[in-house]
């Protein structure tokens, strides 16, 4: 366990905002600092991704601050779980005192999914993949799903349940993009337009504007601030493959190693997790991650999520904001997983609150099952 805590958390405007990326970033940062009872003058560390190749430099300049520590590693949607680890290490090493981790994207307003990734024709794997015209990243996740269903004899209904549960949580979250859309059924998912077999449009995450920020500082400092500190208990990460060409087994992800490291560092087990926020870029991402993290065995995720287990009121609260499938997905979703985890541990989630939640897991996935990072958070006992 670390002596570091999250002291503030917030979202920017969400949905269709018409605002610039830096405006959304500034909204998230200033709201998270206000939540923590701090100001920009207190920030000496900054971690962000997605603005440009000089993301941290550009955002710092925009905010008018001069941090002594920055991080802008681009690893897709899991970068922000990685940033929590880097921030904790930097604070404990005395490199900085207060780190803001932030993200913002205006993908929907810009009518673009560019931040979700692009295929570079000059990469080594391009000669084996590009000629077949795969949809990035849709076709790649579809290959993983097809492999999974074939290997374990599972049905598409297992995938559909992930989307159905996410919608039920979203209907309890007024900030969710699908808040007023009504419930989703398994038949709705299965009969939605097929994009890349076996995945339909309803198996894929949203495309929205949005962003978020969290404030990380020492546990000692956090205890003097207005909000209840949420401790960083453990973290781990693993990078596996750039493309599907280099993946040995599409049904086994780097979540295995990132999860093992996070649980070992925290001295916790899967049985200690009260609420989980798992990246749901596609429905298959959730099934593979649940198995990788050890919540169930290989090929058992379909049964694990069945019978309402991951829906509101179920035994395993999962993606309680509505997730990337029904709440919000601005290209990279990992930071908003952490924001929801913090709010659940503070008891701030109203009708979707998981009663008695003391330990939360946030797991990000980047690229095409390429990069993985796990963070365990807990209340300050």
TrEMBL record:
CDD domains per the UniProt record, alphabetical: SCP-x_thiolase (cd00829)
Transmembrane feature ranges: none
Database matches in Pfam families: Thiolase_C_1
Cited InterPro entries: Thiolase (IPR002155), Thiolase-like (IPR016039), Thiolase_C_2 (IPR055140)
Superkingdom classification of source: Bacteria
Record-linked SUPFAM superfamilies: Thiolase-like (SSF53901)
Residue span(s) of domain Thiolase C-terminal: 236-378
Entry protein name: Acetyl-CoA acetyltransferase
């Amino acid at each position: 366990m670390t002596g570091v805590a999250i002291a503030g958390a917030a979202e920017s405007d969400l949905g269709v905002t018409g605002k610039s990326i830096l405006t959304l970033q500034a909204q998230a940062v200033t709201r998270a600092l206000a939540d923590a009872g701090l100001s920009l003058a207190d920030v000496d560390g900054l971690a962000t991704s997605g603005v440009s190749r000089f993301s941290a430099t550009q955002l710092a300049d925009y905010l008018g601050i001069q941090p002594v520590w920055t991080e802008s590693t681009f690893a897709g949607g899991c970068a922000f779980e990685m940033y929590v680890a880097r921030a904790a290490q930097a604070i404990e090493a005395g490199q900085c005192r207060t780190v803001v981790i932030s993200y913002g994207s205006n993908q929907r307003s810009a009518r673009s999914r560019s931040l979700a990734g692009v295929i570079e024709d000059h990469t080594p794997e391009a000669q084996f993949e590009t000629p077949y015209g795969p949809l990035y990243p849709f076709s790649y996740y579809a290959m993983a799903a097809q492999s999974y269903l074939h290997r374990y004899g599972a049905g598409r209904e297992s995938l559909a349940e992930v989307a159905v549960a996410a919608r039920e949580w979203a209907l309890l979250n007024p900030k969710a993009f699908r808040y007023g859309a009504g419930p989703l059924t398994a038949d709705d998912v299965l009969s939605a337009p097929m994009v890349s077999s076996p995945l339909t449009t309803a198996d894929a995450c949203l495309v929205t504007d949005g962003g978020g920020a969290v404030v990380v500082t020492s546990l000692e400092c956090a205890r003097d601030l207005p909000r209840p500190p949420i401790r960083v208990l453990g973290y781990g990460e693993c990078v596996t493959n750039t493309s599907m060409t280099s993946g040995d087994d599409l049904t086994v992800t780097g979540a295995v190693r990132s999860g093992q490291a996070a649980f070992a560092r925290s001295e916790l087990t899967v049985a200690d997790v009260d609420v989980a926020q798992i990246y749901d870029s596609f429905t298959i991402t959730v099934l593979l991650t649940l198995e990788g993290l050890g919540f169930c065995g290989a090929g058992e995720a379909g049964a694990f999520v069945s019978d309402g287990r991951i829906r509101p009121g179920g035994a395993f609260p999962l993606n309680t904001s509505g997730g990337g499938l029904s709440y919000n997905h601005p290209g990279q979703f990992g930071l908003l997983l952490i924001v929801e985890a913090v709010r659940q541990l503070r008891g701030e989630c109203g009708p979707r609150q998981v009663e008695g939640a003391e330990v939360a897991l946030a797991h990000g996935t980047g690229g095409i099952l390429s990069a993985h990072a796990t963070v365990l958070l807990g209340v300050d006992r």
